[in-house]
Write a structure and sequence with these properties.
Chain lengths: 308, 533
Amino acid sequence: MLLQVASNFVEGVDKAFFIIMGIGVIFLVGLTTLMLVFVFKYNKKKHPKAVQVKERMILEVTWTAIPLLIVGFMFYYGYIAFMPMRNAPDDAIQVTAVGKMWEWNFIYANGKESKKLVVPFNKAVNLKLISLDVVHSLYIPAYRIKEDMVKGEEGFMWFIPTQKGRFDILCAEYCGVRHSYMSSEVDVIDEDKFNLWLTIIDKKSNKEELPGFLVLKNNACTGCHSLDGTKLVGPSFKGLYGRSEIVLTNDVERNIKVDEEYIKASIVNPDIDVVKDYNKGLMKSYQTVLKDEEIQQIIEYFKTPDEK
Amino acid sequence: MDISAIDNSFLKHGTKYKGILGWLMSTDHKRIGLMYMYAIMIFFVVGGLLGGLMRLELFRPGQDYITAQTYNAVFTVHGVIMIFLVVIPGLAAVFGNILMPIMIGARDVAFPKLNLFSFYIYVLGAILAIASQFLGKGAPDTGWTFYAPYSTDTNTNVVAAVLAAFVLGFSSILTGLNFIVTIHRMRAPGMTWFKMPLFPWSLYATAWIQLLATPIVGITLLMIIAERWFKIGFFDPNLGGDPILFQHLFWIYSHPAVYVMILPAMGVITEIIPTFSQKRIFGYKAIVFSSVAIAAVGYLVWGHHMYTAGMSTTARWFFSLLTFIVAVPSAIKVFNWISTMYKGSINLQPPFYFTMAFVFNFMIGGLTGLVLGSLATDIHVHDTAFVVAHFHYIIFGGMGFAFLAAIHYWFPKIYGRMYNNKLANISCAFIFGGFTLLYFPQFIIGMQGMPRRYFDYLPQYEWAQVFSFFGAIVLAVGVIIMLFNLIKSARKGAIAGPNPWNGKTLEWTIASPPTVENFEEIPVITEGPYEYK
């Protein structure tokens, strides 16, 4: 089999696939063979004089009616496999799935947050879909489901995991430079393990409680600037304040130390002093997006040392 | 060699000016058509090279040659060039211009000056499209679909690209208008609607789509510009707009645009098959009505691009039902084409090989389209490589192969000379083989869940990217052989004579290449277009 079979929808979807593709292959092989047979049999060399055949109404009516019936049949199988996807059971576990450039966040009813979607085996899960910026699309190939996340609207998708283990979550709607890295996984575990997992809520550090941290999160700054030192689209925020950097100003290298002025300038005019080895033109000015007060909060956050 | 026909033809005689101005200022539909052809061929090569660059980057996982940002710009530019500069004008602007007036027995289109004006609007749009890549803060990175709010938010030069698409739309609208009037008013005496050849018929259906659907995308693109410049909230939720509205407006045009590409392609195929089978087309009226039906119902199926976008469940199944219905007239055409070959006397020449490749590719494109039209299966393969494979099968495998078939079919008519048959057949084999190797594996990894527009991918999808890369190389070799053959033969090929294929439509009754006026005397039509005896 090409793909894992891991949710309650797989059977219906794969059946519709099989039927549509099956009929398609029959038509493709049949018609291609017919065409080739005609080309050989009625080749000019063997068949120098064409015979003008009369049109037959009955033939044309038949080959209109039969395809109509066949497509009706295909529509039906697509329809019956699809409709359950839009009817989530009331007792499903509610999880809010948040998409933003370029990471997923899953928030459970008790406030627990996770980058991975951890769910109990064989229980219905209903995902409320929210985007904080552009359109994303939550796609789980092994479950055969996908639904877009649109800012300002609230979508949903639901499923019952029928296999334990880990399955890819991918973003299917193009969302910018790190679109292809916007992935996570579903982790399907036993229900008792899940209940235990749910109760462990990572305590936020004091630094993460600062308002500036929320500003960085909500404006998707952390999509390009990592918090753990990883090199993404822009320089990492880890240990930013007071760091020495080589920046390019009008293509001239110079050394600077990251201070309040530099941070503010980088938010308002990101293309003026670009840290070496990073590209110009990728970040827009946040001058009109952030209030001065929020920029101050961000600076406060950077000034606060990491806790250990 | 008797080259007097070439010396007397439109290739040597401009209408008013001489030399290069005789081309640039010409209102002769044949010269305008050829100018479109040269422009489109150049853009096709540029778009193809960008496609090749993507295949090279995807050859191995991870970053190899270009950055993710560059990759995103490359697939956007590839899409914009191929869709707006190559396939939408494609057959209608090139072969519609060169041949439609002749096929209906006219000396030119209804508004020759407007025709030249349309060409210059196209050139202006093309310049804007190219400029958008170099001006401003980096090439647009939205994909050719310009989905909001990404397109209203990104830092890159989206406005210029959007404006280019808007300008190009006007060229399309005016060409459509010109063709509708020409077909209504300028058919030769005696050529009733049902005595008109089927390529003009397909252009007629296409022209109505161009005229009615293109303004919608024009307005939509202006709304994006208004949103970006004046912060008027249409699509951006931050300004109170609705991103889904953009998708609706975009696809209301862009889905019918697929029929703008494929209907003339079907028209070309419908001309070639009777000629090389020496037979009357089977089901003339069925083909006419199916063209009109495709144009009409094709308007109402745009929602099938949006099954996962958050439309209501009712809208989703209704669009699916309509989508399945629009598949039927396309199927009817395939049956008619193959039936036309039955008991024919088939002359296996290069245009016919390209046509067979078209029919095969088009069937795969159409049948995989059913997978995408079906609700449950589309939810799985939407926005994956499966979609990429499907539309390349329709647009390249379909429209592209029809374009190549058309070039090889009408080449002797346009240039009065014949190309090398053997080389043409070899190039057809390379292009078909390369095409298949390039796009077929994408169906499979799409079904396995490889999303489209991915700069990097999981290791299980690598094998297909390797196949596709080598397919691209084979395809490129085929295109080079073909261009070499055609360019050389246009100047040095053997003299073709007026009717090398024993065709029946009017263009084969006049000199090759045609004179400036096409006909010395406008013919009087007494019978249907494919009356082989």
